[in-house]
Design goal:
By secondary structure, this protein is of the alpha/beta class. About 45% of the residues lie in helices and about 15% in strands. The protein is globular, with a radius of gyration of 20 Å. The mean pLDDT is about 90.
């Protein structure tokens, strides 16, 4: 939503050289844009950093083409930052919608806690997250090492260094569709998450405590990707069993505490194998 009821906004649009009609849309809104460019780049992470480097404001955010802010979201975030100047990140809930904009469920924002980020996944809905410039100066820009988990790693860096604020209300819409990067690139996302966790060093945990916790975190990641692969068509679906076995090997209780979901994964894999034996592809 372009009009946010907040006067001092700077819109920067960076397009990676699209040929799908994006340029016509960008030019339509050019009078309201502080800057725009359409050219090949090094990917999403590099483009966001480029935009943030050009921005002049004290508060920053980024939102992808498929997503949008709810009315008044930027004003709400700005007021929270003004009331609490030491906060490095303000974020709220995101409404998950389908391609037609129909609401599916919510991505609930919860107060930042490192263990929860590691044990349960991202509690900071990316489209509904806003950052102070002082936070970027303290922790750096997005790491261009990451292309799939850029927001997850960045929010962890901020949350470990600065106070954060969770706003208990929806601030954005996050669109789910079959061609989204997260659905099409499961392998890449899995690889980045595993690499991040295996190289991560929590600052306030002993080495022994982290090694024990890390097994649970890795088990959670493999389990969630077992669920993800189980929902894919063949041949990707067959990879769900490998992920499930690895999850159980690392921390058996994770799967055992979720018997229905674990059974569903196993049934999906077996059903896929049976269909292959019968010569069908679905």
């Amino acid at each position: 939503m372009l009009l946010q009821g907040y006067p001092n906004l700077e819109y920067i649009v960076l397009d990676g050289g699209s040929s799908d009609g994006s340029l016509e849309i960008i030019r339509k809104y050019e009078p309201w844009l502080a800057y725009w460019a359409s050219e090949p780049d090094g990917g999403q992470t590099q483009a966001i950093n480029k935009g943030w480097a050009r921005a002049t404001g004290d508060l920053l955010a980024y939102i992808n083409t498929d997503d949008c802010y709810l009315g008044g979201a930027l004003g709400i975030a700005a007021r929270e930052f003004c009331a609490k100047p030491d906060v490095g990140m303000v974020y709220g809930t995101a409404m998950l919608v389908d391609e037609a904009g129909n609401q599916l469920r919510t991505w609930e924002a919860r107060p930042f806690e490192l263990r929860t980020m590691l044990m349960e996944g991202n509690m900071v809905p990316q489209p509904a997250a806003f950052f102070s410039r002082s936070a970027l100066e303290a922790v750096g820009l997005l790491s261009e090492e990451w292309h799939m988990i850029l927001d997850y790693e960045f929010c962890i860096r901020i949350g470990m260094r600065l106070p954060t604020l969770c706003v208990p209300r929806p601030l954005a819409r996050f669109r789910l569709h079959e061609h989204s990067k997260s659905r099409l690139r499961l392998d890449d996302t899995l690889g980045e998450l595993l690499r991040f966790v295996t190289t991560f060093r929590p600052p306030q945990m002993s080495a022994h405590e982290w090694e024990a916790l890390k097994r649970v975190v890795l088990s959670r990641i493999h389990y969630e990707f077992a669920m993800g692969y189980a929902a894919q068509p063949e041949p990707e679906r067959s990879r769900a069993l490998t992920q499930l076995v690895e999850s159980v090997r690392l921390f058996p209780l994770y799967a055992l505490r979720r018997p229905r979901t674990t059974a569903h994964i196993a049934i999906q894999v077996l059903a896929g194998r049976l269909r292959r034996l019968l010569g069908t592809s679905r």
